Amino acid sequence: MLQTCTIGSIEPIWLSDLNLFIQGLETNFGTYDPVGEAEAKLKGLHMHESHQATKYFIKFQQLATCVQWGEAALCRQAYNGLAKRIKDNMVHHEKPNTLSGLQKLIQAIDARYWE
Question: What predicted TM-score, i.e. pTM, was given to this entire model?
Fold first, then answer.
C-alpha cells in the first residue's frame, strides 16, 4: 500500500472553497459562458445621470458585439439603460428605428445638456 507524505505540504485554500476555485478558473481560463455573461452585463448596464452618453455607448457597443441579438432588441436595451434626463428629453423627438440613429439622437441630446 502506497502512503503519501504530507510533511511540509499545505493544502491550498481553493480546494475547500468552491467559490474560490471557480474564481481561480475564471481568472486563469476566462468565463465558461462569455455570451451569457455579456447578455447579463448588457441587461444590467445603465447610464448614470452624471455620465456622458459616449461613455455609456462605448460600454454598450463592447457588450453588444458579444451577443447575438437583433437590431430591435439592441435598440430596446440601449433605450432601457439610458439616464432619465435623456429619456425625458426624447419625447420632443421622433424615435429612431435603428441603433445608430438612436445613438446619434442621444448624443445630440446629451451634448446640449452638457453645454
Answer: 0.72
